[in-house]
Amino acid sequence: xxxxxxxxxxxxxxxxxxxxxxxxxxxxxxxxxxxxxxxxxxxxxxxxxxxxxxxxxxxxxxxxxxxxxxxxxxxxxxxxxxxxxxxxxxxxxxxxxxxxxxxxxxxxxxxxxxxxxxxxxxxxxxxxxxxxxxxxxxxxxxxxxxxxxxxxxxxxxxxxxxxxxxxxxxxxxxxxxxxxxxxxxxxxxxxxxxxxxxxxxxxxxxxxxxxxxxxxxxxxxxxxxxxxxxxxxxxxxxxxxxxxxxxxxxxxxxxxxxxxxxxxxxxxxxxxxxxxxxxxxxxxxxxxxxxxxxxxxxxxxxxxxxxxxxxxxxxxxxxxxxxxxxxxxxxxxxxxxxxxxxxxxxxxxxxxxxxxxxxxxxxxxxxxxxxxxxxxxxxxxxxxxxxxxxxxxxxxxxxxxxxxxxxxxxxxxxxxxxxxxxxxxxxxxxxxxxxxxxxxxxxxxxxxxxxxxxxxxxxxxxxxxxxxxxxxxxxxxxxxxxxx
Length: 484
Prior knowledge:
Elements: H1 3-14, H2 17-22, H3 32-37, H4 39-44, H5 48-61, H6 68-80, H7 84-95, H8 98-120, H9 126-144, H10 150-160, H11 169-172, H12 175-185, H13 191-197, H14 205-220, H15 226-246, H16 251-265, H17 271-293, H18 303-323, H19 336-347, H20 362-378, H21 381-393, H22 395-398, H23 401-413, H24 421-424, H25 435-438, H26 467-472, H27 479-483
């Protein structure tokens, strides 16, 4: 056994759990001279992650010049390491230590790009293919952290998918999710075409289809007109339902399908039935999704996706509570304070639900939710009186910013707040009730798991359009489009 291995074993035997997570210091391994002498052994052997940890500690305690021999050894290890487990753990250690990665700079980026390119040509060499995928994932994390420039990585991944069928399966399988997260941060880089090329392979088509659907969802939420946002969300929901029909175990697609369905169903005439049905499906699926993910490793670049799913779930629960009281047949007898509270929470959901597809929720709340809640008051005079009475006499709601915001919006939409709902429509400045339009587009809610796959359906039959096609084929923002 090498002397440095003995020191590592002795350190691990006496280290606390916190110390083992942080890794050994140069002092723990016998000092700078001992570590420098064993640098090549650490770089090419199974203890490369410990070398990275010791180097990071050294940089915290000394200047970069003193740590230069160790930094050079880390670069050598990332360039030559042929043990997949050691490389993957080392890549995670680097991603968790941005200061070290920034100090390593361009040589680290070049070494990782070389491993990525080698993974494309690995053929039957499983370790090389997996190392290439680990290098790509590490570069994604460093790019999102602003440590490495995105241009080289974006170009390398786009080039890698030009002949997706020629890629080793273990390497290709990891690409769609990486392309999807990069497309979310760099939407103009043209990565959608790379994802579309992944649809032709059975081992990449499911992830590629899902990432394409999320790209469509992000684009839908960029609209500021009800009709265009609703039309695009209807298309997103259809594609998610198609994906779930082809892959019934796709829990993340089921979650997004239920959430989008809840937002669309809020405008339906029977929202009090549709929205709770979507919320029930989401709760059940979310429980299974979290159980499946329990104690599994989630890379840092994927945490935003989990936050996104949580935000959609929170928004759906707020919509479920509000939808109960949107029906015109609901007399609002009983606890009017409670009714106003749940409606106001949904009306200002973007103040509490802060992440949806990595953008603020203001767009979907202000465009798809707020008008529906305002209409519930404008259609019936007694509901306006409930709100006015609460603002005058209810201590909890009198100074509530959400209640005052709603009252101001209702006053703005109606020249005479005391007028009945039929007179209000003439004064609408753009937030008119649209449930009668969406009613033609929203079929009765059906769980996507109950959809059946046609025997002739194939993944290439998904026929996802290019970005240019989607942009040119969008309906004009007129109410008649949503009804057609």
